[in-house]
Amino acid sequence: MRMTCANWNDAAEIIAVKRLKSWSNKAEKEFAVEVEILARVRHKSLLSLRGYCAEGQERLIVYDYMPNLSIHSQLHGQHAAECNLGWERRMKIAIDSAEGIAYLHHYATPHIIHRDVKASNALLDSNFQARVADFGFAKLIPDGATHVTTKVKGTLGYLAPEYAMLGKPLKAATSSALESCS
Ligand SMILES: Nc1ncnc2c1ncn2[C@@H]1O[C@H](COP(=O)(O)OP(=O)(O)OP(=O)(O)O)[C@@H](O)[C@H]1O
Ligand SMILES: [Mg+2]
């Protein structure tokens, strides 16, 4: 998928648009999962869905634009030289991200496991409020289940060892990915 930003309806507001580069069953599934999950959740620490398009092989998802990009961009990417992330701000970003993930695990119905928490998927708005994004790998957990065995998904280096080895997306496994974001 490719991210781009655009003016919305000629207004002064900028939006972010994710567009599928080429259509495949796998990409279509990720698109459908992301739209379904974003439509179910609303929390200050999760990126909001503004709209989507599924027409022919065209797949677009429209989000709020996050002007401070991601934790990864701030630490290692295009904003790294500006040193915007002091320790107090980092602590708030970690707590806000954890609150977003806790909402997915405990309050969303059914519960949701993100499965791809990492620094480039934790975005930052104009006030450096963290917004967890990218739900294409997420998994809905049926009521009462403590774990679901699935194919291992996510990004190598951010997977909790017990998840990578056993394929169980335990709720604690997502939280350990946050530790790798610092
Ligand atoms: N709503 C948004 N506003 C601003 N930038 C965004 C937004 N959503 C994503 N981005 C940025 O766009 C870039 C591409 O995002 P994308 O999710 O496609 O790739 P990624 O997070 O780098 O890797 P991966 O494909 O493994 O998730 C990233 O740098 C991400 O931080
Ligand atoms: Mg991403």
TrEMBL record:
Swiss-Prot/TrEMBL keywords: ATP-binding, Kinase, Nucleotide-binding, Serine/threonine-protein kinase, Transferase
PROSITE patterns: PROTEIN_KINASE_DOM
Pfam families: Pkinase
Stretches assigned to coiled coil: none
Domain called Protein kinase: residue spans: 1-182
Keyword Kinase recorded: yes
Reactions mediated catalytically: L-seryl-[protein] + ATP = O-phospho-L-seryl-[protein] + ADP + H(+); L-threonyl-[protein] + ATP = O-phospho-L-threonyl-[protein] + ADP + H(+)
Top EC category: transferase
Keyword Plastid among record annotations: no
InterPro entries linked to this entry: Kinase-like_dom_sf, Prot_kinase_dom
EC annotation from Swiss-Prot or TrEMBL: 2.7.11.1
Sample GO molecular function, one term: protein serine/threonine kinase activity
PANTHER family from the UniProt entry: OS01G0750732 PROTEIN, PROTEIN KINASE DOMAIN-CONTAINING PROTEIN
Protein name as it appears in the record: non-specific serine/threonine protein kinase
